[in-house]
User: Which sequence fits this backbone?
């Protein structure tokens, strides 16, 4: 067997456990890494070297997010380091790939012992599911193939897309809301009263009252509401899969048009008191021009 190398930098990093480095977010784990020459031997330069240090960062020249615990396995004689992570080290981190570097000092020179990418994967947490106006089964009704584009890093059943569809729908309801109550022509009447010096001036921003009603699930989720939300969720799912080919570009355009046209013919109904009957009706076919 060839003797260990005595040159700095003529080696690569090997995970002795095999495979890439992967750790669920907020979990503990140890990784045993060895500097190896191209011929499979290890460099002898680390024998008796000072204690190594490690850093995790997001890439490029970003500052380290973490300096995990690291130590020589055998005083550096076999060029092996053990990098240790604890539960709190990666708790709350975004999923994805991070850079790991282990260094030591030899003769006043900072020398890289190991370098690797660490994949932070998903783990159970305390997140609360976001509300929606449609179910995965509603998406399947219109797009039976939709499950084929479910990505491993997405919430099951396109939960994010369905929640985003509700956000889109609620924002349109808020933009179309005219307020109410002054004269026979709602805020057209209020405008006249305000012009004459009486009556309130309406805020330009979204209605806080209606925002609270929507957050409290007071919207009557009729079949047309469910359908429009399902169409928009399918659009979002297909829009995220356009790299797979023109088929999904066409699907995205089709379902966006269905959602956009469908909502314009709807009237949102707010059941304020929970009686099963609406107290406020908001046509969604036109935006609110305030006093015009």
Assistant:
């Amino acid at each position: 067997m060839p003797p260990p190398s005595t040159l700095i930098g003529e080696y690569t990093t090997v995970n002795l456990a095999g495979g890439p480095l992967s750790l669920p977010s907020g979990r503990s784990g140890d990784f045993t890494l060895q500097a190896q020459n191209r011929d499979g031997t290890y460099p002898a330069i680390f024998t008796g070297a000072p204690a190594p240090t490690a850093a995790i960062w997001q890439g490029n020249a970003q500052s380290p997010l973490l300096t995990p615990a690291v130590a020589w396995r055998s005083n550096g004689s076999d060029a092996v380091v053990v990098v240790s992570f604890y539960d709190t080290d990666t708790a709350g981190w975004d999923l994805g790939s991070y850079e790991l570097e282990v260094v030591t000092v030899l003769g006043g020179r900072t020398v890289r012992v190991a370098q690797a990418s660490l994949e932070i994967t998903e783990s159970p947490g305390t997140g609360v599911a976001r509300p929606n106006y449609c179910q995965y089964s509603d998406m399947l009704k219109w797009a039976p193939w939709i499950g084929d584009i479910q990505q491993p890093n997405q919430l099951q059943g396109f939960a994010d897309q369905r929640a985003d569809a509700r956000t889109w729908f609620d924002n349109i309801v808020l933009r179309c809301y005219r307020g109410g109550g002054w004269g026979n022509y709602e805020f057209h009447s209020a405008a006249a009263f305000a012009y004459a010096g009486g009556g309130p001036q309406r805020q330009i921003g979204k209605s806080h009252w209606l925002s609270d009603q929507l957050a409290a699930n007071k919207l009557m989720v009729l079949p047309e509401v469910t359908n429009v939300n399902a169409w928009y969720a399918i659009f979002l799912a297909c829009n995220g899969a356009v790299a797979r080919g023109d088929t999904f570009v066409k699907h995205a355009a089709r379902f966006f048009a269905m959602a956009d046209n469908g909502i314009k013919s709807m009237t949102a109904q707010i059941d304020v008191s929970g009686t099963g009957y609406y107290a406020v009706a908001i046509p969604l076919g036109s935006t609110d021009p305030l006093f015009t």
